[in-house]
Amino acid sequence: MSQERLNAFCASKLDELDNKGILKGRERIITRIVAPEWIKKGWLPDANEDKAFGPRYFLVGDDNPYLLMNSNSYLGLSLHPDVIAAEEKASQNFGTGPGAVRFISGTFTPHIELENKLAAFHQRESAMIFSAAYATVMGVLPPLIDDKTLVISDELNHNSIINAIRLSHPAQKAIYKHLDLNNLEQILSVHASSKENAATQKIRRVLVVTDGIFSMRGDHAPLNSILEICQQHEKRYAEGIITIVDDSHGIGAFGETGRGTEEYTHCQADILIATLGKALGVNGGYVVASKPVIDYLREISPFYVYSNPITPSEALAAKKSLDILDSSEGLARLKKIRSLTSHFKSGLIDLGFETISGEHPIAPLVVRNTQKTSRLIRHLFDNKIIATGLNYPVVPLGDEEIRFQINANHTKLDIDQVLKILQNSDYA
Questions:
Q1: What are residue 22's phi and psi, to 5 degrees?
Q2: 225 catalytic, yes or no?
Q3: Which of 215, 248, 301, 313 is the catalytic position?
Q4: Is 278 noted as a catalytic residue in this protein?
């Protein structure tokens, strides 16, 4: 009987999600990937090459090849032969899994090698890898927040940041309007000057947390201006202001050498969180910071202490991806995705669609209508294009969009194919 009541409860909640329009429903299951020879050999056609197609994906029960336009693997490294070879070789040497958490017997030399490389890549003293980027955010924020901490967050920050703040129970939290730095400065001023805080020092430390690249839109936080505002106000709080950036969509896809929003804005936050599972094409998350901060998190962060790390083979695959990114090939891949992104966004505008300007390979087609977004996603799928539709309440009402994501395994022919299918829709 208890199981029946639980089933009824879950069914009613599914109905609620469906009625709100946020039920994800059945997942599309990829059965195989057919990659062209140039990918298998690690070649990289120029962005203007008009004779090559990228990989095609096949789904359960469907013999048609699909073009994937919603992958986070911006550099195309998940299919790179050198990255695959690094993971295969490591699995032969270290097995398929770590078998324990880090402090018991789950730390292998590939984990240490990767952490050292990540720290050097980001010019930080120390680095620490987690099982996922979501786990990194959840594992980093709460240990730095107590009952005398004010947490300030951009209103479009990722769900992981929102839930990490909820888990933390800070003294106070505040949300500033998306990229509204006047609003951020107002919040810092109001809390610092309040009579209650001056009398009791209720707020001693401030954490300002933001995405680097905002995943729904592809726009970026102006970190240099955020840091400048924080520096102007930090002496008004006993323990200062700590800046934390989650740049999971930025690392490997943004900035001249792929070092993300920090590089693009020529500054450095106190703590940087990112992922190995997007542009680097593998799995896992990480944080880089000063050595005392990382040493503290290793001791106390439950998402690190009580959870297995990524496998040693994943660590060496990620290390190989970093090697590629930090090379002439990496620069070429970055140049290619910037060129293809520009070509795609220009094509959208020429067709009369709205998009959001910027160099990041997230290229949203802004529809501003839930029904039209759903119909356009269906039109794309019927024409063998897989993309992600974002409707209210996932995005604010009136901001409904299709999020396209460009990667280095796409070609000009791929992009032109998508534009032609959009041109033949009812909305061009």
A1: -120, 15
A2: no
A3: 215
A4: yes
Architecture of domain 85-325: 3-Layer(aba) Sandwich (3.40)
Q: Spell out where 168-236 has E strands.
A: 172-176, 205-211
| Top CATH class, 29-65+328-423 | alpha beta
Return the domain boundaries, the chain.
29-65+328-423, 85-325
Q: Rounded to whole angstroms, how far apart are CA atoms 269 and 249?
A: 16
Q: Is the pLDDT of residue 199 over 70?
A: no
Q: Is 215 a catalytic residue?
A: yes
DSSP characters over 347-359? HHHHTT-EE--SS
Instruction: Give the pLDDT confidence score for residue 428 in this predicted structure.
Output: 60
Query: Hey, what are 232's tokens?
Result: 């102007």
DSSP 52-110: ----EEEETT--S-BEE---S-TT-GGG-HHHHHHHHHHHHHH-S---S-IIIII--HH
Q: What are the C-alpha distances in Å from 371 to residues 80, 366, 374, 415?
A: 38, 13, 5, 25
- Please indicate, yes or no, whether the overall pTM of this predicted structure exceeds 0.70: yes
CB neighbours of 369 closer than 8 A, spacing ≥ 6? 400
Provide the mean pLDDT of the chain: 94
Q: Would you state the structure tokens that stand for residue 179, as one six-digit string?
A: 């990229």
Contact by Cβ (8 Å): 382, 422: no
Distances (CA, A) of 283 to 1, 315, 341: 41, 8, 25
* Domains 29-65+328-423 and 85-325 are alike in CATH topology: no
Report the distance separating Cα 296 and Cα 88, nearest Å.
33
The band of 24, judged by pLDDT with boundaries at 50, 70 and 90, is: confident
| Spatial separation of the C-alpha atoms in residues 421 and 428, rounded to whole Å | 10
From the candidates 80, 249, 319, 412, give the one annotated as an active-site residue. 249
pLDDT in tens, 322-332: 999 999 999 99
| Half-sphere exposure (Cβ direction) of 410: Cα atoms closer than 13 Å | 32
> Of 148, 278, 336, 410, which is the active-site residue?
278
Token pair, residue 399, equals 């901001």
- Which residue, among 310, 239, 303, 243, has the nearest Cα to 271 in the 3D structure? 243
Predicted confidence (pLDDT) per residue in 109-156, tens digit: 999 999 999 999 999 999 999 999 999 999 999 999 999 999 999 999
